[in-house]
Write a structure and sequence with these properties.
Layout (H helix, E strand, L loop, with lengths): L7 H30 L10 H8 L3 H35 L18 H17 L2 H28 L7 H27 L7 H18 L16 H15 L3 H55 L1
């Protein structure tokens, strides 16, 4: 979405924080209203608000709730199509998939072909798959992406090629591995021993030690110019731990399906993606060198003409 925003470094964070704040307040008010209409033991997990309104004599309100739920589902579909189409556009620009899908509409400047591809593909997959399988894959994929984004944020803040020293890189990698492994250990212990607590005396202090070590011993190589995530590395490390913990709460079938899909995509990337992305990057570097050489030659001709 950054390409379609006038000032992405300012507008996108403001939009995300503003919308999430409004949604959080609305959800809290909805939960408060639901708990005041009936006891929590009587709440229907499948149709909480519809049943609650019907029990208090407001049958007309359940139709409003159904209309809102339908509108919410269509909104989620549109937002998902917008986001995945932008990912597909960048993938197509790297030639991992046909570059035809990276073309944008000349009037609206939106990736119309990528949007059609993801919309049709999602519809076909949803039509031939069960809701349980899709929900488990969506949950574990989303949590994994969030965890990787937090990891990428730490890498971006603490490592810059040509700036960070090898010693700082080693310290950063060690601390990051400790954070990830301790988070995995916490999640695994919770799944294997739900009532235990001894394992947490090992995994939680390790997480704190890894995060504190990164904060104390590893210098930051980059600072954001306009807006940045605060409390680094504590907040990204907490995000890594939380997402890995939630991933551990999913069933084993979700990991099997996620592993199969990830393996197929990794195999495709190794056999096809690595080669095409290397060729595209090589062509881009050659184009930059030719442009720079042309500027130098133009400057030399101008100097000779002045002389």
């Amino acid at each position: 979405m950054a390409e379609e925003t006038r000032n992405p470094s300012r507008d996108i964070p403001l939009g995300l924080l503003g919308s999430m704040s409004i949604i959080t307040v609305i959800y809290c008010l909805m939960a408060l209203a639901l708990s005041m209409m009936q006891r929590y033991t009587a709440i229907d997990p499948n149709a909480a608000y519809s049943v609650a309104f019907r029990n208090v004599g407001m049958r007309w309100a359940q139709y409003v709730v159904a209309l809102g739920a339908l509108k919410g589902m269509t909104t989620v579909l549109l937002v998902g199509a917008i986001g995945t189409a932008r990912y597909t556009t960048h993938i197509a620009r790297s030639h991992i998939i046909p570059p035809f899908f990276a073309l944008v509409h000349p009037k609206t400047a939106t990736p119309i072909y990528a949007t059609l591809l993801m919309t049709v593909s999602s519809a076909i997959i949803a039509f031939f798959s069960s809701l349980h399988i899709l929900a488990s894959l969506l949950s574990i994929s989303t949590l994994f992406i969030f965890m990787m984004m937090a990891t990428a944020l730490l890498v971006r803040r603490y490592y810059v090629r040509g700036v960070s020293t090898k010693k700082d890189l080693v310290k950063f990698v060690v601390c990051l591995v400790v954070i990830i492994l301790s988070s995995v250990g916490t999640s695994a212990y919770w799944g294997l021993r739900p009532g235990g607590w001894v394992g947490y005396l090992v995994t939680v202090p390790l997480w704190v030690a890894g995060t504190f070590g990164m904060w104390l011993f590893v210098p930051k190589a980059r600072e954001p110019k306009v807006w940045g995530v605060p409390m680094v590395p504590w907040l990204p490390a907490l995000s890594i731990g939380t997402n890995l913990f939630l991933m551990g709460s999913l069933g084993g079938d979700a990991f099997v399906r996620f592993g199969i899909c990830s393996g197929l995509m990794l195999l495709y990337y190794v056999l096809v993606g690595v080669h095409v992305t290397y060729d595209v990057a090589h062509e881009h570097e050659e184009g930059e060198e030719k442009a720079l050489r042309g500027k130098v030659e133009d400057g030399g001709d101008a100097d000779r003409s002045v002389a």
